[in-house]
Amino acid sequence: MIRLFTPPRLGSAPSAPRLLLLSLLFSAQVGLAQTKNPVVESILQEATQNSQLETLAHELMDQIGPRLVGSPQMQQANDWAVAKYKGWGISARNEKWGEWRGWQRGLSHIDMVAPWVKSLEGMQLAWSPSTKGKGVTAETITLPETVTDSLAFQKWLPTVKGKFVLISMPQPTGRPDYNWQEFATKESFEKMKTQRTAQTEAWRNKMTKMGYTTRTLPVALEKAGAAGVVMSNWSNGFGVNKIFSAYTKKIPTVDIALEDYGLLYRLTASGQKPKISVQAESKEKGTVPTFNTIAEMKGSEKPDEYVVLSAHFDSWDGGTGATDNGTGTLVMMEAMRILKKVYPNPKRTILVGHWGSEEQGLNGSRSFVEDHPEIVSKIQAVFNQDNGTGRVANLGGSGFLHSYEYLNRWLAPVPEAIRSHIQTNFPGSPAGGGSDHSSFVAAGAPAFSLSSLSWSYGTYTWHTNRDTYDKIVFDDVRSNAILTAILAYMASEDPTTTPRDRSVLPANQRTGQPGIWPPQTKPTRKGGLD
């Protein structure tokens, strides 16, 4: 719960004049609380009676799709957002911040063709090389069961030539832990966890002895002549795998769902010599420019001061980037649309940034901060949303000493049905990474994360093949758009400029050294090319 007002502590019975003063103050507060703010009322009405969230979500997630940095869909999304803003009468532009390896996903089709025929659930990883033509068919091989040292692994390495190499640990169960907790006996559940822990530790030790990591191993296999790399990055939920990037340059790297990967692994380990056929089409697009989409409503009284709405626009492309960060994008776009309609002449400039390449290291927002010190120095507040579809449940002060005072003031007119779910933490601590608000915090600007309820985000939708339109909870996203619009309005109208005093950070528990504010980090402006 939010604590907006704490009355003074009285040491003795108040005098009559003091009672009268307290009574007048209380009456004024009640009267103020009962006075409806017409802008807030209009925000609520527009958000609930004329919401555009479902339409925006369908256009972005279903029609454009995933937004991998450097892909044609990312450029399409940038152009779509500019057109949307201009259609609402809001000035918008695409601002170049760097260049990236251009790549376009194509058809992925993976089949087991021996010892029997089965189409497998899987897909190529981002930036995987194309198989070209009719694809590649080859036998599968597992990593050696035991490895004594790196020299022994180097002697084994030539055996991968012409084969697909299974490089992920086979999971002992495809059931998430909550399913075991519901149905298994306590003894059975504990036995499974013990076995899984031992298996995981043995696999980790083997990788260490081999002398490779999950990043460097595919490159070594490629150099040894493997036909391709097969992995399964399970996300601990039914049917869910995380889909990241390939590190190979000439051979395909594919991810296969736990169930089918386990089948292949067991058949390979028992000597059945399964074969798979992989068709992984993709197109290299050379070096392409990358952009942030920026839109703004100019301030009428203080145009050189800024309230910034923030969400990253890019995504991984296992799904369609619905909750990471389609929902954050929708919140900011809908908030801007509403504000343009009900608050068209803000006191301060309200700027929204849809950042590129957050997934590779906050590159879009870090570039904006580096390129626009004149804006960063005049920021009233940044509100960033980037952790799923749930309604906002936490708001911290990011280490700014006086954040409790102005954030609580801005939260005051937010409807109780929304505000009552939000826990605050002041002054909080500055984020060193994680999402784009930290790019601004590092530069000293008061920037805050609108942190959401989980909805199983980490397991089911964060960077996974299941991050799709159907996972969006529109009631919660609508609540967040209302909250964001009200916060932006209140921050714009505030007669005072937010102070930037930083709290003293606690000492590092490991080193005993004083806490240090996160430093400003340079962005990667040319990526994916090495």
TrEMBL record:
Coiled coil: none annotated. The keyword tRNA processing does not apply. Its main location: endoplasmic reticulum. GO terms for molecular function: carboxypeptidase activity; metal ion binding; metallodipeptidase activity. One of its GO terms (biological process) is proteolysis. One of its GO terms (cellular component) is extracellular region. Residues 494-530 are annotated as: Disordered. Keywords: Carboxypeptidase, Endoplasmic reticulum, Glycoprotein, Golgi apparatus, Hydrolase, Lysosome, Metal-binding, Metalloprotease, Protease, Secreted, Signal, Zinc, Zymogen. InterPro entries: CPQ, Peptidase_M28. The keyword Endoplasmic reticulum applies. It is found in: Endoplasmic reticulum; Golgi apparatus; Lysosome; Secreted. Residues 1-33 form the signal peptide. This is Carboxypeptidase Q. It comes from Rufibacter latericius.
